[in-house]
Specification:
about 65% helix, mainly alpha, 2 domains
């Protein structure tokens, strides 16, 4: 894990807390991002807290109920920022993610309009 990525310190702390079965803001944030983090190759414990979104909000509400919503959104933005930066670092483009989505979606239904998006997108990368 690249500690220079934005939010890396929070993700690293969350991984440690999850392994030690501590319910912290960082641990719940990592649990929220678990599917995407796993796709990035980050090893997470097999057992994660249930309903991490609700539990994170409840935890933030205990400390400062008036600011829980804005703090929750700020933590989610940090998680997404880390995930996007890690994807860019690994060379994962928007096209890759669309193709993965469409291939998993095609198992349940056909999506010809999605294929048109892939064919007409000139620069699918969101990385700088």
């Amino acid at each position: 894990m690249n500690s220079a990525l934005p939010g890396a310190e929070l993700i690293e702390a969350g991984l440690i807390d999850l392994r030690e079965q501590r319910e912290t803001v960082a641990a719940l944030l990592v649990a929220i991002g678990a599917p995407r983090l796993r796709r990035l190759g980050i090893e997470l414990p097999t057992t994660l807290p249930e309903n991490p979104e609700h539990r994170l909000y409840e935890l933030l509400s205990k400390d400062e109920p008036d600011s829980a919503h804005s703090r929750y959104n700020a933590f989610i933005r940090r998680l997404v920022s880390y995930e996007r930066a890690a994807e860019c670092e690994q060379g994962i483009t928007l096209r890759d993610k669309l193709e993965e989505f469409l291939s998993s979606d095609s198992k349940t239904s056909s999506n010809s309009s999605g294929m048109a998006i892939l064919q007409t997108t000139d620069n699918p990368s969101l990385c700088p």
